[in-house]
Amino acid sequence: MSSLELFHLLRPWMLLLLIPGWLFVWWLLRQQNDILRWKAIVNPKLLSHLLLESGEKVSKIQAPWHLGIVWTVIILALSGPAWQLKPAPFTEDEAQIVFVMKVTESMETKDLTPSRLKRAVFKMKDLMDLRPDTKAALVAYSGSAHLVLPLTKDHAILNTFSQALSPGIMPQKGDNLKDALLLASEQFDNEGGTIVVFADAVDPAQANALSKKGLTQDAKVLFLAVASPELLDAKGFEQSVSLLGAEWTGMTVDDQDVKKIASWVDTAFQQAGAKDDTRYEDGGYMLIPLILLLMLLWFRQGFIAEAWRVS
Fold first, then answer.
1. Pick from 116, 103, 28, 101: nearest CA to 68
2. Is the pLDDT of residue 179 over 80?
3. 223 and 249 Cβ atoms separated by less than 8 Å
4. Ramachandran class of 117: left when φ > 0, alpha when ψ lies in -120 to 50, beta otherwise
5. pLDDT, tens digit, 9 for 90 and up, residues 60-109
6. Which residues contact 12 (CB under 8 A, 6 or more apart)?
7. C-alpha torsion 236→123→90→288, nearest 10
8. 107 — phi, psi (to 5°)?
């Protein structure tokens, strides 16, 4: 996301203070308006001939307007303009990923060597290698969904558990993606995270049912299609990601698919952080030099008297 898209005010309610400030400026300008006072006692038709144009007219209104400008900049600074996320403390990776592995007989197909399931496990390990400090969990599903391992930074044990997955240990046959995604979404902390699904096919009906029920946490869903291009049902993935607001990519022989997933994880983490004002740096301090520069005029001889002059 660009800085412009991230820009917002941490304390927008402070802008309400602009109202009394500019009301005060308006009052000062009226108090210094000679024409308004003369109109109350002199016929307007005669007034235009009686008043002399003065070079001081412009300078007389400069002080109140200047006070208003300084007040506006001060309030903008206090409102907390923000457009940059704070760096994670100690450069710690705070993103969370739940891997959802489809474990069915179709995943034993060998159009990908050594099999779709084994290739998915390899890709999962490649993704963890790219993000060694990321908390990750593992959910396996077929006809039912099961939590294999909760969120952990111990990627070695996660890899060990994933290699032990096989259709033979699953209690029910089927393709219950809906329950798997719901279970995965429940593993996150309050901040949410990313769900990465490894599957050879996706039933749009499952995605449709889930889109109506909704995930329990703010989770971004990503799909890695584990099938050869000749056997891949791309239409099913496209319909499903459309229903879920997700992303998907096919498997590649190199690491481009894993890098794409990793970039999506980064984007999802940044978008989640963009909803949390505590992660933003308050940029109001950057307006302090401008405020001081504007206030230098206050030291001009006669400025204070000019600002408070009443005609």
1. 28
2. yes
3. yes
4. alpha
5. 446 788 888 999 999 999 998 888 766 554 445 578 899 999 999 999 99
6. 79
7. -40
8. -75, -10
Cα 61–chain centre separation: 44
Angle at 119 between CA 113 and CA 125, to 5 degrees: 145
DSSP-H helix ranges across the chain? 3-6, 18-31, 34-39, 44-50, 56-78, 116-130, 155-163, 177-185, 204-213, 234-244, 256-274, 288-295, 303-307
Cα separation of 117 and 170, whole Å? 14
How far CA 217 is from CA of 31, 62, 75, 188, in Å, comes to: 58, 55, 36, 7
**Side chain identity, residue 232:** L
Percentages helix, strand, coil for the chain, rounded to the nearest 5? 55, 15, 30
Give the position of tokens 């481009």.
256
In angstroms, the CA 219 to CA 242 distance is 15
Token pair of 143 as six digits: 């006809």
